[in-house]
Amino acid sequence: MDTVLLEKYARLVVKTGINLQQGQTLVISSPIECAAFTRAIAQIAYQEGARDVVLNWKDELSAKIRFLHAPEEIFDEFPDWQKEFYLSYARQGAAFVSVAASDPELLKEVKPERVMKAQKASSTALKEYRERMMSNKNTWCVVSVPTAAWAKKVFPDLTADAAIEKLWEAILKTVRVDQQDPVAAWEAHKQYLKKSMDFLNAHNFKELHYQNSLGTDLKIELPEGHLWLAGSEFTPEGVEFIANMPTEEVFTLPKKDGVNGKVVSSKPLNYNGNLIENFSLTFKDGKIMEYSAQKGQAVLEKLIGTDEGSHYLGEVALVPFDSPISNANILFYNTLFDENASCHLAFGKAYPVCIKDGSEQDKETLAKRGVNDSLVHEDFMVGTADLSITGITQTGETVSIFKNGNFAF
Question: What is the pTM of this model?
Answer without folding.
Answer: 0.89
